[in-house]
Design a protein that fits this description.
Helices cover 54% and strands 3% of the residues. The protein is built from 18 helices and 4 strands. It has helices at 8-11, 25-34, 37-40, 60-80, 93-102, 111-122, 130-141, 156-162, 186-192, 214-237, 243-251, 257-271, 275-288, 314-331, 335-359, 372-380, 384-397, 400-411, and strands at residues 143-144, 149-150, 290-294, 308-312. The chain has a two-stranded antiparallel ribbon. A two-stranded antiparallel sheet has the order 3-4.
C-alpha cells in the first residue's frame, strides 16, 4: 500500500540519481547510514563520559540507537491514534529512524568539549557545528577512499530531517558559536526547500532555525527524551550525581511543587536501585506525550512534512528541561568532565597547529603527519579556508582512541615503537 504522506518531491535524491530496488527510498537512506564507516565510528566517540573509560556507559552510537528507537515509537504511536493520520497516510518510521541514526554523525571526538574546541579553531574559516558537519558528511564526504570523496545521495526528506538549523554562518550579525549551516551549504538548503524563497520574516532572530520538518521535530524530541533521562542514569552510575550533589544543586534552584515531585521520584529510584527501570518508563511517557496538528507556512503546499507539526505536552517538556538542566549544571561542570574539556583543547590545538604548519604555511613540507589521502585533499584546496575545512574534517572524523593515539605518536617520546603504529 502506497503511503500518500510522501510524494516525488520528498524522495528525490541529492546528487546523482539512485537506482531503485526492492526497498523504499527511505529504507535505502537508513541502510546506507548503518553501513557507513562514519556510523561505526560513533561506537568510540564520547556521549558524556570518555569513550572506553566506563565500558557500559553510553557512546554516540548507543545514544543514536536509543534515539532511533524512540523516534520509531513516536511514529507508531501517532499512527495508532488515527485522527490526522490514516492507514495509507502516515509518517514513515524508516525515514525517522534514518534521521535519528544519522543525527550525531558529524560530532567530533571528546563530545561537546571537542565541538567547542573545533568551533574556536574554525571561527576564522566558516565555523564548526555538529549538525552542519552531519549534513556535510551526508552530502559530500561520507564515502571516501583513495580516489574519490562523495556523499550518499540522500533523499530530500532525509536531509531535511537532519537539518535542525537552516541559518547560514554569514547570516548572523556576528560569528555564532553553534546552530548554523556552513556558508557553502546554501546549495543544500536550496535543494531541501525545492528552490522556494524563504520569507523575510523567517530571517529575523532565530526563526529560520526553528523552521523544521515534522520528522526533524520528532528526531529533536526523541534526542531530548533520550539524553535528558539517560545522562542522569549514567551520571548516577559514574558517581558524578549523588544525593548530596543533587540536594546542593536543588538548594540554588527555584524548585516548585512539580520539580519537587520529580526530585522525590529520582531519590526514591536511586535508593531502591530502580533508576534505569523508572527512567525507561519515563521514556514511554515522553512518547505518549506527542500529538500532531496542522500548520500553515510557505512549504506546506509542497510537502506534508511541513503541513503537520509535532506538539509535545508541556508537562513532558518541563520534565525534560528539568533533568537536562540538572545534568548540565552538575555533570558537565564536574571536575571529571572539565578534565576532558582541558584534554580536548590541548589535543585538538596541538594537532591543528601541527597540521597547519606542515600543510598550509608557505615553504616545503616538514613531515607528512596525515594519511596520504587527507594530505592530497588539503593540497588540492586553493584557499586557506578550504584547507582549514579539510583539516577540520579529518580531526572531527577521528574517534576518541584514534585522536589520542595520533597525539601520542607526535608528542609522547615513549609512544612510537613499531607495535604502536596500528
Amino acid at each position: 500500500m502506497q503511503n500518500r504522506f510522501y510524494n516525488a518531491f520528498d524522495t528525490e535524491a541529492y546528487g546523482a540519481g539512485r537506482t531503485p530496488d526492492y526497498r523504499s527510498a527511505f529504507q535505502i537512506d537508513r541502510d546506507r547510514i548503518i553501513h557507513a564507516h562514519a556510523f561505526r565510528k560513533l561506537q568510540s566517540k564520547t556521549q558524556v563520559f570518555l569513550s572506553g573509560e566506563y565500558d557500559f556507559y553510553r557512546t554516540r552510537l548507543t545514544h543514536s540507537m536509543e534515539v532511533a528507537q524512540i523516534g520509531r515509537s513516536i511514529c507508531h504511536f501517532l499512527r495508532s491514534r488515527g485522527g490526522l493520520l490514516q492507514e495509507d497516510f502516515f509518517i514513515d518510521s524508516d525515514l525517522v529512524e534514518a534521521v535519528c541514526l544519522s543525527h550525531d554523525l558529524g560530532h567530533p571526538p571528546f563530545g561537546h568539549s571537542g565541538e567547542r574546541t573545533l568551533q574556536e579553531l574554525m571561527v576564522k574559516w566558516g565555523g564548526f557545528e555538529g549538525n552542519a558537519q552531519t549534513l556535510h558528511l551526508l552530502t559530500a564526504t561520507i564515502y571516501q577512499n583513495e580516489t574519490s570523496v562523495r556523499g550518499m545521495q540522500p533523499t530530500r526528506a532525509l536531509l531535511d530531517g537532519v537539518l535542525k538549523y537552516k541559518k547560514l554562518f554569514k547570516e548572523f550579525p556576528k560569528p555564532p558559536q553553534n546552530h548554523f549551516l556552513y556558508d557553502p551549504q546554501v546549495e543544500v538548503r536550496g535543494f531541501v526547500l525545492g528552490g522556494a524563497k524563504i520569507p523575510k520574516e523567517l530571517h529575523a532572530d532565530e526563526k529560520l532555525n526553528s523552521f523544521k520538518s515534522v520528522e526533524c521535530q520528532i528526531m529533536d524530541w526523541a534526542d531530548d527524551a533520550a539524553y535528558s533521562l539517560n545522562d542522569i542514569v549514567d551520571g548516577v552510575k559514574a558517581g558524578v550525581l549523588s544525593f548530596e550533589k543533587i540536594e546542593a544543586w536543588a538548594a540554588n534552584e527555584a524548585i516548585g511543587p512539580q520539580q519537587q515531585k520529580l526530585l522525590d521520584g529520582l531519590f526514591d529510584a536511586m535508593r531502591g536501585d530502580r533508576l534505569e527501570s523508572v527512567f525507561s518508563q519515563k521514556i514511554g511517557a515522553f512518547i505518549k506525550a506527542c500529538r500532531l496538528r496542522e500548520r500553515e507556512n510557505f512549504m506546506a503546499a509542497k510537502t506534508n512534512r511541513y503541513r503537520f507539526e509535532l506538539v509535545v505536552e508541556p508537562a513532558a517538556e518541563r520534565e525534560a528541561h528539568f533533568f537536562k538542566k540538572m545534568a548540565n549544571d552538575i555533570i558537565f561542570e564536574s571536575p571529571q568532565l572539565q578534565q576532558i574539556e582541558h584534554k580536548a583543547r590541548r589535543v585538538l590545538f596541538d594537532l591543528w597547529n601541527s597540521c597547519w604548519s606542515n600543510y598550509v604555511e608557505k615553504g616545503p613540507r616538514v613531515i607528512n603527519i596525515l594519511p596520504t589521502r587527507v594530505g592530497k585533499l588539503i593540497d588540492a584546496e586553493t584557499t586557506h579556508a578550504g584547507k582549514a575545512r579539510q583539516i577540520c574534517d579529518y580531526l572531527a572524523g577521528l574517534t576518541d582512541g584514534m585522536i589520542v593515539r595520533t597525539y601520542r605518536r607526535l608528542f609522547d617520546p615513549e609512544f612510537g615503537s613499531i607495535r604502536d603504529l596500528s
